[in-house]
Structures are given as C-alpha cells and as structure tokens.
Amino acid sequence: MPSDSNAWRLFSNRLEFDFAHYHYVELETSESKIDKALDHWRAATIAALGANSGSADATSAPWRTADELYATIDAIQATNPPSWQTDIFEFCLRDARLVLEQQLQNPEFATQFQAAPYRQFDSTGDRVFSNVMSGDLVWRIADDIAEDPTTHGSMVVPVVSGLDKTTVSVVTGHQEYHPYYISAGNLTNIARRSHGDGVIPVAFLPIPKVSKRQKKRKEFKTFARQLYHMCIRLIFEPLRSGMTSPEIMRCPDGHFRRSVFMIGPVIADYPEQVWLACIVQGWCPQDLAKPDNLDNPTATRRTHGKTDCLISSYDRKTIWDSFGPFTHSFPRADIHELLAPDLLRQVIKGTFKDHLVSWINEYIHSVHPTNRALEIIEDIDHRISAVPSYPGLRWFPDGRNFAQWTGDDSKVLMKVYLAAVIDYIPIEMSQCLASFLEMCYIFQHNAITTSALKQAKEHLEDFHRYCEIFVRTGTRAHCSLPRQHALGHFITGIPEVGAANGLCSSITESRHITAMKKPWRRSSRFNALFQMLKIIVRLHKLSTLHQLFKNQGMLHGSTSMYMALTADNNWQPIEKNGEGEGDVDYDQEPEDDGRKEDVAPLGGPRFASSVSLARTRRESFSIVQKLTD
C-alpha cells in the first residue's frame, strides 16, 4: 500500500471510504438515513473523547450532511476519464435583458405591441384567443403582480423562447448547432412570424460530442442534462432581478414603462420538451398519464410542487436521478405549463405525415399483395399529381413521394390527400382522417374562438374513436403516442397562451436560415461559431440603424438623388422643420376635401423615386398531364 497521503484519493482513510461505499452502494441508503448515520458518528466520537473534546461534535465526522458525501463521490475522477469529463465546452450567449431592451424600443413594432393583457370577444360574445397577451397565463401573472405594492401597475413582459437543434451542412461532417431564441410576448403573432427582429437568437447551447457507447452511459446522460439546464438558466439570469422588481423599459410607442419580466411560453419539439421537463422518453411533459395510456382522462397535471414532493419522499435511485428544470429557481415559472402547443411538429409533421400517411401505406401493404399494393400507392401519387392549378394548391409532379418534406409541403398535401386515398381505405379510416383535418384547420386559425375550440374538441374525440381502426386492422399495436396525445393539450393550451400559429416551431425553423445557415455560409467553415456570432450581431446593428434612418426620412428615393439634394447642406440630412416640404408625411393619405375630380399634386417626396426590378424573371410553369391507358 502506498504510504503517501493521497493513497485514498478524496478520503482520509479506509473508514471514510468504507462508510461511503457501504451506505451508497451496498445499502442504497436514503439521504435522511445518511444524515442520521453521520450524527451517530459524531455522537460516538463525543462519547469516546468525553466532555472535554471541545469542538469534536462539529468536526469528528468527515461530512456534515449527505450532500457533502455526495459531493465527495461526484468529485471522484477515474484513472482514464472519458473526454466529456475533461473537455471545456464553449457556451456563447448574449445579455438577454439588453436584447429585449433593444427589441422593445424598436419603433418598427409600434403598431404590433401590446402593453397589457386583454380579453377579446366577438359580436356573439365568444372569447377570442389570438396573441400571447390575450391568453389567461399572462392575465393571471398580471393579477399576481398587481397584488404586490412594489410591482403594482407594472407592465408584464412575458419572454417567449424557442430552441431547436439544427444541422447547417451534412457534406462537411454534420455541423450541428443548438440556437436559443427569445422574443417579447408583448409583440403580436404577426410580428413574431414575420422575417425580422421579432425573434432574436440569444445563445448557442453547447453540444457534447461523444461516441454512441458513451451516450448510453447513465453518467453522461446526467451530465448532459445538467449542462443543458444550467446553460438555459444562465440565459435568463440577467432577467432574474427584473422578475421581482420593476425595471424601466422603453416601448416601441416611445413611452417608458415600469416592467416586470416573466418566463413565457417555450417553443420546442417533443424531444426538446422531454429534456426541458426532465421526464423519461415516451411520457407526457405536461400530465402524469402513463405511456401505455397517454389519453387517460383522469391523469393530473404535472407541477413543480408534485416533483418536489416525489424527490423528498423517495431516494434518488427510485425517483430516477434527475436535475431540476431551469424554471425551478425562477419566480412564477413552471415549465409544465409553459410548453407551448407546437403546430408544425405535433400536428402537421407529427400526426399527419409521420403517423397517418405512414399508417395508411402500411395498411395498404398489409391487406394487398406486394404488386397490388405498389399499384395502389402509384395510383394515389397519380391522383395527387393530377390536381389542377388553383390558388392555395401546389402541384406535386411525383405525388407524395418526394425526398424531403417541409412544413409547407405537408400543409398543401393535407388539402388533397383524403380525396386521393378515399377509395382504398375503410370508411372509418376516412372518417379518422377527416376528423383530424377539421381539427387541424381550426388550430391553424390566427384567431380562435371558444366555439371553435368546442368544435375542435369534438373532432378530437372523433379522431381518437376512429383511430382504433388502425389497431383492429393490425396496422398498429396501439395509438398511445406523445405527439398524438399532445393534440389534447391544444384545447387547454390555446386559452392559456393564444393561437398556436404564433408559437409554432416553424418560426424558429425559418429563423435558422437568417440566424444560422446564411452566417455559416459566410464564414470560413473553420471554428465558424465565433464568426457566425459576429455576423449576427453586425446584421442586427445594421438592421436597427436602417430602421432608424428610414423613420427619420433619410432613405427616401435613390442614393444618387438624395446625395444631390444634400450637397448644398454639407451632406447633412434634410431636417423636418415643420415648414414647407419638410413637414409632409409621406405615409399619410391626402385629405379628401370633397373635390374628387380635381387634379392636384399629391403628397410625397420631392425628388425622383427609384424602381426596383426583380432579380430574376418570373417563371411560368406549364403542367403537362400524362394520360396512361
């Protein structure tokens, strides 16, 4: 045995090591019982040394609590540790508060900004849900803030966030990035869906790259989960003080308001929701239904309080060694109620493309010989490709058998798919598909009323009832799937956070193009992340300055004409002094004084305007339908 002092590594002697090994490995002792054993250790030391032992009661045991024992065990390093235990991971992020401040003071959103939650009703008295501020979630938070005298009268700023791992290039070795986006929930859904600064990348989460064997290790899974939540917690850390004490924020309308931040809806696909909610794959991140019966109507909702109760009642091995969600330490935040319904991944791509379309193909193959099944599927593709040209429809020359499905492809295919397959499937399958489509079209509305939600609920019940045809025909063993189960959460989620199309993962996917793929193409491809970050920041600064110059009337007309007008003014911009031509509002329609037939100069810029031509000529498609015997 080595005689040096480090022979027992982090333990002082064999007694300490045997104590840790005996209680944690052999007995699997709970945390409370370890605390009791350590107390007995101190008591035995006091009894052995007598009353004159001084401070022996505090220092005799090597650990004061079980948490200190766990920390010692966690600090043990193997002789040849895997690379993920010694690597340094790069986490790039921006100040979330500064990003929100710049976004909120952008005058471009002056007409697409809401300072207070509201409840909207139509002419029949039905409640209308549209933007985030029209939902009940922000309304409840505003009530809580109003009850506190220190925050009474403050504006609620729900921080909508979204994350989605993406690959920018497969050819050069699967360059993967994990961006995290944020947006002020006070902006309307239109502002968030537009291709502008309604959604801004705020961080790039680190992606530990290990072998497939290492990914299956429990230690790596725990580490990756902790790294994931710790990074997201750091993103929202600059907003923590503003969640309890009001901070002054300038709004798009030019007014300054006392503002209180809150973690708002989170846009994420089901795999991301599993990580965010700290659950096991196959379970629901929002309720406690079991995987074999996810649609159990008696299942109760998940909450942080229930999770804390389970952790305190069971030992770590029984409860599954977990790391609390990032929302656990923030006020008025519960990840289980913040997960927004995802229209693209859960409905359009998930239930329709991955489930129904695949199941119908499997059914056709199961009831027909191979050659006949291929003939039927080919005829279905012919029917889809024979759809005439019509606004809102798309021509698929190869039917539904195209290489890569996009969300837009799935949306258009939904309009013609039922008519193409109705002759080859049982009536119950047709009714199942029809019920799903009716429900899906309701969820896609920009504004959804309570009556529409009741209709969607009825269609959902019909869909679940008719969906059993796939089980009876042997196509499926069961239909208890997380993405289909999530359809029920649309009924309860839309009244909470507004219409689903304003919190859809298609927003983050479209943002990938401008925030990820284009900056990556402009980089040198080597250690591209830092270059991409500089490009993103520069683009955002130029976009903000461009909007400022535009609002000041400094970008009217062509560059050469504007320079000619400012030549006599020492190249300084022409100021609006309230006299003559400088006082003209170019965006305002001329006043109607009743003389409609008079011809007079219209209000507008007093210099030559410019005409921007299309970069490429418009292509004319000629659809040639091939007729076969």
Helix content estimate = 40-55%
What quaternary form is this?
single chain
Give the overall average pLDDT. 82
Question: What is the strand tally?
Answer: 11
Overall SS class: alpha+beta
**How many helices in DSSP terms?**
24
How is the largest sheet built, in terms of strand order?
A: 1-8-7-4-10-9
Output the radius of gyration: 31 Å
Unreliable residue runs: 577-612, 620-629
Shape: globular
What share of the residues does DSSP label as strand, in percent?
5-15%
- Gap between N and C termini, in Å? 89 Å
Task: Tell me the major beta sheet.
Answer: 6 strands, mixed
Q: What would a concise description of this structure say?
A:
The protein is of the alpha+beta class and 629 residues long. The chain is built from 24 helices and eleven strands.
Label this structure with key terms.
alpha+beta, disordered C terminus, 629 residues
What does this protein look like?
The chain is of the alpha+beta class. 45% of the residues lie in helices and 8% in strands. It is built from 24 helices and 11 strands. It has helices spanning 14-26, 31-49, 56-59, 66-74, 83-86, 96-104, 136-147, 189-193, 212-215, 218-236, 270-277, 304-313, 316-319, 335-338, 343-367, 370-385, 407-421, 427-443, 450-466, 469-472, 482-497, 505-522, 528-551, 559-566, and strands at 92-93, 120-121, 127-129, 155-163, 166-169, 175-177, 179-184, 200-204, 247-250, 256-267, 448-449. The relative contact order is 0.09.
